[in-house]
Amino acid sequence: MRYSFRNANVRKASLISAAATMIATIVTAASSGAAAEGKAPVAAPAELSPALSGFGQNAVDTQPLPNALSGEAPADAAPQISAESLQAMVAAQPVSDDLSPEMKCLASAIYYESRSESLPGQLAVGRVIVNRARSGRFPSSYCGVVYQPSQFSFVHGAHGGINARLWRNAVAIAQIAHDGSWQSEAEGALYFHAARVSPGWRLHKVTRIDNHIFYR
């Protein structure tokens, strides 16, 4: 009797384990990519890149955020730079190696989501994050927006080394997006997805820039 009872427990444990594995697989599949509504549960982040280490889903505001809709910058923002083009503004932007956690979140999202895009495309991605943080419909910090479940899939995977030039551009674009010092072609957008996919969102399309389509 003890042998049969033990076998029954083993079989029961095996069934429970198999069910748990199936559920985990479904959840992981549902949470991949950048979802519009953020309703799907998401797995715990894997090893983060150096740019993202040191903070996570419980990050809080550490600096004032600009009014993304009006372009108003915080009182302690860097002096505004006048430039004839976005490229010139990025080149003139002072870039610090000592970024606050909030600006690191913003720059990291720009880098990993759009480093291969044009500067206007990178700015549009940055402004989506700024817009979300000021909208009242999303977390009120850049880190909160980036780490909101099912929004930015890059936070869940390990990454290789960082290209110094592209990272410098991302940091400069993050500061410009934060200050609202250059008008984005996708101003007002709250969502974007890669042009290669068709998620069927019932949202107002703002524009397409390079390989991303932006919506509000």
List the keywords.
6 helices; disordered N terminus; 216 residues
Kindly state the mean pLDDT as a whole number?
Answer: 74
Q: Kindly report how far apart the N and C termini lie.
A: 66 Å
- The helical percent reads 40-55%
Radius of gyration computed on alpha carbons: 21 Å
Provide a brief overview of the structure.
The protein is mainly alpha-helical and 216 residues long. The chain has helices at residues 2-31, 86-92, 101-114, 119-135, 142-146, 164-179, and strands spanning 191-194, 205-209, 212-215. A three-stranded antiparallel beta sheet has the order 1-3-2, with helices on one face.
Q: What is the fold's blueprint, element by element?
A:
Blueprint lengths: L1 H30 L54 H7 L8 H14 L4 H17 L6 H5 L17 H16 L11 E4 L10 E5 L2 E4 L1
Antiparallel strand pairs: 1-3, 2-3
Explain this structure.
Residues 1-7 and 12-77 have low confidence and may be disordered. The protein starts with a helix and ends with a strand. It has one domain. By secondary structure, the chain is mostly helical. Helix content is 41%, strand content 6%. Strands 1-3-2 form a 3-stranded antiparallel β-sheet, covered by helices on one side. It has 6 helices and 3 strands, in the order ααααααβββ. It has helices at 2-31, 86-92, 101-114, 119-135, 142-146, 164-179; strands at residues 191-194, 205-209, 212-215. The radius of gyration is 21 Å and the shape is globular.
